[in-house]
Write a structure and sequence with these properties.
Distance between the termini: 15 Å
Structural class: mainly alpha
InterPro entries: AveC-like
Helix content: over 70%
Order of helices and strands: HH
Number of strands: 0
Keywords: Membrane, Transmembrane, Transmembrane helix
Organism: Mycobacterium angelicum
Radius of gyration: 16 Å
Shape: elongated
Protein name: DUF5135 domain-containing protein
Length: about 60
C-alpha cells in the first residue's frame, strides 16, 4: 500500500483548505467592512474549533483500525 495520496484525495484536500481559507477571508472582510462581527466569521470560527476538537479522535480511530 502506497503512502501517497491519490489524485482525487489530493484534490479534496486542496479544495477543503482553499474553501476554508476563502470563507474565513470573506468573513474577516465583511466584519471589517461592517465594523462588527459578521455571522459568516462566527460560522468559520465554530467550524475551525469543531475540527480542532474532532481531529484527535479521528487520528486515534485511524491508528486503531
Amino acid at each position: 500500500m502506497s503512502g501517497e495520496l491519490t489524485p482525487l484525495l489530493t484534490g479534496a484536500v486542496i479544495f477543503g483548505w482553499g474553501s476554508g481559507i476563502a470563507f474565513t477571508a470573506a468573513g474577516v472582510y465583511l466584519s471589517v467592512r461592517r465594523r462588527r462581527l459578521h455571522p459568516l466569521l462566527l460560522l468559520c470560527i465554530s467550524a475551525i474549533s469543531f475540527s480542532w476538537i474532532e481531529a484527535p479522535y479521528d487520528w486515534a480511530m485511524y491508528a486503531q483500525f
